[in-house]
Design a protein that fits this description.
about 425 residues; about 25% strand; four-stranded mixed beta sheet; alpha/beta; 2 domains; UDP-n-acetylglucosamine1-carboxyvinyl-transferase, Chain; binds ligand EPZ
Length: about 425
């Protein structure tokens, strides 16, 4: 298994290009199942999760042509061979469950394995199931698979979500585009990836209004057509690299960065003593003083502070001046990076969903282990600020969501290298 070695203490200077969003691409790709015409995605990220989604769609009979080193994906589901998403693939990536809505909408049936839990939580699918049943789907859990069918197709309905689940909103939004009648999703997720999906579906011919708000209204149509859609910038990769100069010092410009994608995150950075400036190319970030200031963080659904940036923020606060309290309200077990940061000398106390971080002057490099995607990148960032060398193992977690991280960070001066073993 590969590992990454980081040697801390070098200020960073230069530009980092931000890729297309993993969490947008993972819902845009299954949208191809809604139409027999081709869907072309540009600005697609090159990540192992994308390769997993390609494998899943190909197992259903979707033709996928990757061009420009994977930045362009052309998907066509005119020759489907299956409507079963197999456990072997789904267990590797929860987002595989996003084929459920489109398969039901166009093929009126689907067998989708439950994803099973993952490191950060149980991650059930009850909200997806309840919503699709409200649209007339009959869904039964058997042998770890959801057996779903919609004889005669789905029907438009009022669909209140008990929690603004991102995945459930995406499954229902896609399903509703071909349902008979009007669907109103209440308490819909408002994440930029939802807005991006709605834009793509509209360019395929869907009739959607309200995306980005808590109420999305979809008027079903008979069929959807071809489209070409640029994947929106990855706001989590953006937030991650915006933190790099806060750890290591220096100034970094994140190309493609947009303030509207990271509003609440930038508010917290400002409170922590970090300057974020809009430039023609993106966002420039620089720490105002030698040490950031402690701030309290609570993760919320968008537009609140994103849970996917909690680990990275915690790592930064480990060397801030003062005590910070971080509350994780989206997932039940998303502090696994804490014990690894403690190995580097951090002072963190975890009580259930609340972590109290007392800033120390400097972290010390150490061998640490990645446990999930965002925890692994928080350890890489911590290594940039630590004294000496840190080795992060099990970085297959990292490759799921960050393309060529060692190249992007080396290009702005970081001492970082991948060790293949
Ligand atoms: C998406 O996951 C993202 N993944 C996650 O990013 C992100 O952390 C999450 O949204 C929250 O923003 C993709 O978009 C591929 P949810 P999703 O449904 O859709 C509970 C990353 O690091 N829940 O909004 O699975 C669930 O257990 C990943 O890129 C139910 O209880 O998130 C969780 O506690 C990690 N029942 C909470 O809601 C359900 O039916 C949020 O889940 C569905 C969800």
């Amino acid at each position: 298994m590969d590992s990454i070695v980081v040697t801390g203490g070098t200020p960073l200077n230069g530009q980092i290009a931000i890729a297309g969003a993993k969490n947008a691409a993972l819902t845009l790709m299954p949208a191809t199942l809604l139409s027999e015409e081709p869907l072309t995605l540009t600005n697609a990220p090159r990540l192992s999760d994308i390769a997993t989604m390609i494998a899943l769609l190909q197992s259903l009979g979707v033709e996928v042509t990757s061009m420009q080193d994977g930045k362009v994906q052309v998907l066509s589901s005119h020759a489907m061979t299956s409507t079963t998403a197999d456990y072997e693939i789904v267990r590797k990536m929860r987002a595989s469950n996003l084929v459920l809505g489109p398969l039901l909408a166009r093929h009126h049936q689907a067998i989708v394995s439950l994803p099973g839990g993952c490191a950060i939580g149980a991650r059930p699918m009850d909200i997806h199931v309840t919503a699709l049943e409200a649209m007339g789907a009959e869904i039964e859990l058997k042998d770890g698979y959801l057996h779903a069918k919609a004889p005669g197709g789905l029907k438009g309905a009022k669909v209140p979500l008990r929690f603004a689940s991102v995945g459930a909103t995406e499954n229902v939004l896609m399903a509703a585009t071909l349902a008979k009648g009007t669907t109103v999703i209440e308490n819909a997720a408002r994440e930029p990836e939802i807005v991006d999906l709605a834009k793509c579906l509209r360019s395929m011919g869907a009739q959607i209004a309200g995306e980005g708000s808590s109420t999305i209204t979809i008027q079903g149509v008979d069929r959807l057509g071809a489209a070409t859609h640029p994947v929106v910038t990855d706001r989590i990769e953006l937030g991650t690299y915006m933190l790099a100069p806060v750890f290591a010092g220096g100034e970094v410009e994140c190309l493609g960065g947009r303030l509207d994608l990271v509003g609440s995150f930038v508010e917290k950075l400002d409170a922590a003593g970090v300057d974020v400036t809009e430039t023609p190319g993106g966002l420039k970030v620089k720490r105002r003083a030698d040490r950031a200031k402690a701030v309290d963080v609570t993760t919320e659904v968008f537009p609140g502070f994103p849970t996917d940036l909690q680990a990275q923020m915690m790592a930064m606060l480990c060397t801030a001046d003062g005590t910070s309290v971080l509350e994780e309200k989206i997932f039940e077990n998303r502090f696994m990076h804490a014990p690894e940061l403690i190995r580097m000398g951090a002072d963190i106390e975890v009580q259930g969903g609340v972590a109290t971080v007392t800033g120390v002057e400097r972290l010390k490099g150490a061998p640490v282990m990645a446990t999930d995607l965002r925890a692994s990148v928080s350890l890489i960032l911590a290594g940039l600020a630590a004294e000496g060398e840190s080795t992060v193992s099990r970085i297959y977690h990292l490759d799921r969501g960050y393309e060529h991280i060692e190249e992007k960070l080396s290009a702005v001066g970081a001492k970082i290298e991948r060790i293949s073993s």
